[in-house]
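User: Round two. Same drill as before: sequence, then structure, for each protein.

Assistant: Same drill it is. First protein:
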Amino acid sequence: MEQAGLPESCLCKSTVNVYSKYSQKKRQNKLPYGTCRITVSRTSVAQNVFGAIQEIGGFTREAWLE
């Protein structure tokens, strides 16, 4: 993780959603770029992440400001 400046020990194993045998492989509302999960131990870091998401996305979510 050179880009984030994190050692590999900070990373979790990635997961991919798999189809249930009952789903008939029909997915609705797919996200074109996928999703990621970030776990942080400091409130200030979480606030910076949420602020960056809002800035890049061009929206404001009031619940994230509390």
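Second protein:
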Amino acid sequence: MTLESHRSGVLYVVATPIGNLSDASPRALDTLKSVDLVACEDTRTTRTLLARHGIATRTIALHEHNERRASAGLVEALRAGKNVALVSDAGTPALSDPGAWLVREAHRAGIRVSPLPGPSAAAAAISVSGFAAPRFLFAGFLPATRAARRKALQALDLPWPVVFYEAPHRIADTLGDLAERFGPTRELTICRELTKKFEEVMRLPLGAAAGWLGERAERSQGEFVLVLEPGKERETRAVDEDAVLGVLLEAMSPSEAARLAAKITGTPKKLLYRKTLKS
């Protein structure tokens, strides 16, 4: 460790509640209270949490539109000895949320990065899905357009659970595409508004998902986490990494395609990413 790293502050990556503010851990609250700055996706959302617990720490916005610019200033503050907490609106930062760039830059600057584990919508959904999960694939948000979403789903018929996040205005279309791709008998666990007042967790066949959603108008509101039942184990047939990568590249960025292809095929992400640059 360099002399500079001894003088530098610490970047704490802090998981925050995904809905119920009482889920904030004592350690997370102590950290948010003691640091010099809290870097957050939306200062209004984070201030609600801080105010609930009487915390007056200064907040600074770090979101998808300003992450690189804001990260430069935060790294300088860390180098100057300031301690910074990184949070997202809900759950664990950098999981389908901003933050990874700041963490990377802190590592590159020799600054200590320390995680404060806690709430995660993906982990919570897996825990109530009832699908055996010695491992699972976290696919995050599917592409917004229907054509791209269907392309992405082609590569996700896997022998382990697949976890998706989805926005309320796309949930009906996504349930329809899942049923069309995987058939009406494949099961899905729908988690709506996890840990919040109107939380619902329902496991049902894909053929019944649209009907469940349409039973009550309010079901089209809120945040969704979907857990798809594992498909059947394929018989000793090697997964064609080039084919998987090709399908995913039609629906998402090279970096994201390489990440998911690595999960599916077991091939290192760096090797797959290099392939995307050559294609």
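Residues 1-5 have pLDDT under 50 and may be disordered.

User: Perfect.
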